[in-house]
Design brief:
This protein is mainly beta. It has helices at 35-39, 91-97; strands spanning 2-10, 24-29, 71-75, 84-89, 106-111. The chain is globular and about 45 Å long.
Length: 121
């Protein structure tokens, strides 16, 4: 399971029958630093911000360019853009959907209210 931030929605008019009616969200995995790493200036981020922002349309030739570490996940809990979520991966994602035949490897299974890392205030 990973923690991610929902950064957008995905619309697919043609898709596998097992995905019809499913809400697809685009999310970016979050990286958490230990306090020691933060003091050393390592390049990861806190829970409050994505690791990097999606480039603007002017930054490249693809209108909807996104960072390469983004994940498309099926939403099972009613999450929205900007929310921090828990994401099940692999076969656990298909179990969350109760559809073992679905071509899904990521499912949003929770909306995070808060995260507390020991030793950080």
């Amino acid at each position: 399971m990973i923690v991610g931030r929902v950064i957008g929605t995905v619309v697919a008019t043609r898709k596998s029958d097992s995905l019809v009616g499913q809400k697809l969200l685009l999310l970016q995995p979050l990286v958490f630093l230990r306090q020691r790493d933060s003091a050393l200036g390592q390049g990861a981020v806190s829970e409050d911000s994505p690791e990097r922002e999606a480039p603007s349309a002017e930054a490249g030739t693809v209108e909807n360019a996104i960072p390469s570490d983004t994940v498309v996940a099926v939403d099972t809990v009613g999450a929205g853009v900007g929310e921090t979520v828990l994401v099940a991966l692999g076969s656990a994602a298909r179990k969350a959907l109760s559809r073992p035949e679905a071509p899904v490897d990521a499912a949003i299974v929770g909306i995070v209210d808060s995260i507390r890392i020991a030793g950080r205030d």
